Amino acid sequence: MSEPSTLQAAAPRRPLFAVRDLVRRYGELTVLDGVGFEIWPGECFVILGRSGSGKSVLLRQLDGLEQPDAGSILFDGGEIVGLSEHGLLPLRRRVAMLFQGGALFDSMTVAENVGYPLAQHRELSKAEIAEKVAEKLALVHLPGIEEKMPSALSGGMKKRVALARSLALDPEAVLFDEPTTGLDPMTSATIARLIQKVHGLGMTCVVVTHDMPLARRVADRIAFLDGGRFRFVGSWAEAERSSDAGLKAFLAGEEEETP
Fold first, then answer.
1. For residue 39, what are the β-bridge partners?
2. How far is 152 from 156, CA to CA, in rounded Å?
């Protein structure tokens, strides 16, 4: 009887997110019309598109903040469409969202804001939470501001505090909704560098933006959302070789034709 082989076939790689035939409507308006794509563990996936194209709507589906009208969203192989708020808790512990405006609690200090997810989802002492808060604030280059109120922070600092809060639970993925909107070019470059830093820690990043310098700096792959569907998904090199006129016009920043 022959000895069994010691060689084992490698387990197939599984996408972190697998989206199929996603539809989202608001009344008579169809914003997402059969969108399908995959996001792989550890990549930075950037969703591009014009204002109002549905980029942020799509991002909210990935975190379960909105439910689609049809379609499937698998996270790490498990369906999240149709889950209750309680059923979504495991997803929320593994996936963080950085909202466009930061969404800090105005009545809480920086420390209380950053420590909020830890107080909600971890059984830690006050000292342990304070240590984690200091660690995450240092990660976004804002050490020692624990006692400040959000009202005392600049727009860029608020974004960085919000990023620190989103990293508090050490998520596997971070969803960034227009992270540089309203920021000056130098602050935008700082945010881009922090996204690269987060990505370098091994986290999967999904970035919704129409900030082309940001997209070019952080993306492993880009997806161009137009007319409720992705017209293109691929690398920058593939995008630059694409013959799609709409994609080429968007990347070049061409003006819209006016009647």
1. 17
2. 12
Q: How far is CA 127 from each of CA 32, 80, 130, 138, rounded to the nearest angstrom?
A: 45, 35, 5, 17
Residue 156 has pLDDT above 90, yes or no: no
Q: Residue 206 — φ and ψ, nearest 5°?
A: -120, 120
Helix (H, G, I), strand (E, B) or coil at 8: coil
Is 22's pLDDT higher than 80?
Answer: yes
- Alpha-carbon 11 to chain mean position: 27
Tokens for 245? Answer: 């006129």
Q: How far apart are CA 218 and CA 196, in angstroms?
A: 6
Q: Which of 247, 244, 229 is nearest to 20 (CA)?
A: 229
Give the residue, 11 or 108, on which the prediction is more confident.
Answer: 108
Residue 223's pLDDT band (boundaries 50, 70, 90)? very high
Q: Is 95 left (phi over 0), alpha (psi -120 to 50) or beta?
A: beta
The interaxial angle of helices 155-166 and 185-200, nearest 10 deg, is 10
Q: b/e string for 106-128 if b means 16 or more Cβ within 10 A?
A: eeebbbbbbbbbbeeeeeeeeee
Gap between the Cα atoms of 59 and 43, Å rounded: 16
Rounded Cα gap, residues 198 and 216, in angstroms: 16
Answer with the residue of higher pLDDT: 121 or 256.
121
* pLDDT per residue as tens digits for the range 227-256: 999 999 999 999 999 988 889 888 887 655
